Amino acid sequence: MLLLTLFIFCSFRSAAQATATASLQPERIETGDTFTLRILVAGTTVEPGQVDFGAWASILPAKNILAHYGWYKTGPQWVQNFTLVTFDSATLDLPPLAVRLHLGETAETNPLRLTVLPTAAVADVNTMASIRDIERSPANWLDYWPWAVGGLVLLWVARRLLRRKKAPPVPVAVVVPTVAPPPIHAESLQKITLLERKRLWEKGQIKEHYAELSLIVREYLEKRYGIPALESTTMEIEQMLKTTDFPKVLNLAIQDLLSKADLAKYAQSSPPAAFHEKALEKARGMIQETK
């Protein structure tokens, strides 16, 4: 009883000391551009729960959240990233978000400010691209594996109970198998394959294509080499990789890939048409070489 009391006390103490921090990358965008929301939670050894976006509902509704990724640890902190988009030009003052912790506790992030600039109009309206709807990533069967495992377990229990209906009731211990998350390189390669299937460049969505590709590569480098690649510039990433075991022969390839992606994302220039698929192959080859 004493040990249980101490465990509950320590759990509440740990949750109370947990802190949450939010940041945007970048903080200034044009209408229609995507941006990354990064949530950091420190002071707890237990994986945090869901991030409550209720405070943003009137400013950035749920449909503006294009993608989100699971929690992972970087040093002593838990990290989760979200990809969002907005189509209204304004200075958005975003209130704190609540991060749910274990034992029902929550931790609030800091408020944020996002500056959304109007996209420069062209002189000839006939050259303007048509308005595009938000394109969601296709569903993946991996999203439904917990339901499949739960269904199989229920079927197994039902069959056992039917076979033993004449015998005295015996408690049945149900063991749910633990499924390990996919390796970092496998997860990143799968995201590249899904992005390739969209073929965004063929729909005129050059900026969106390179924004997603850059996010996949930076997230892989951060998880694989333990560097803050998601919040760093391309030049900073190159310098940090020199302190790791990242192969030197790939330095020029990763520099070329991230630089061209930066130019495309911020509409400074668009790579040649032949480079769009080549960029996917470069990212795929870098991940295969460093896995």
What report would you give on this structure?
This protein is α+β, with helices and mostly antiparallel strands and 291 residues long. It folds into 2 domains: 105 residues, Immunoglobulin-like (Sandwich); 107 residues, no CATH class. It is built from 7 helices and 11 strands. Strands 1, 3, 5, 6 and 7 form a 5-stranded antiparallel sheet that branches. Strands 2-11-8 form a 3-stranded mixed sheet, with no helix packed on it. Strands 4-9-10 form a 3-stranded antiparallel sheet, with no helix packed on it.
Mean pLDDT: 84
Total count of domains: 2
Strand content: 15-25%
Which percent bin holds the helix content? 25-40%
Taken in chain order, the helices and strands follow as HEEEEEEEEEEEHHHHHH
Span between N and C termini? 47 Å
Overall geometry comes to globular
What is the radius of gyration? 23 Å
The largest sheet is: 5 strands, antiparallel
Number of strands: 11
Low-confidence stretches: 3-7, 9-15
Which class best fits the helix and strand makeup?
alpha+beta
Helix/strand layout:
Blueprint: H1 2-16, E1 19-25, E2 28-30, E3 34-42, E4 51-52, E5 65-68, E6 72-74, E7 77-85, E8 90-94, E9 98-100, E10 106-108, E11 112-117, H2 145-163, H3 184-198, H4 206-225, H5 234-241, H6 251-265, H7 273-290
Parallel strand pairs: 2-11
Antiparallel strand pairs: 1-3, 3-7, 4-9, 5-7, 6-7, 8-11, 9-10
Helix pairs in contact: 3-4, 3-7, 4-6, 4-7
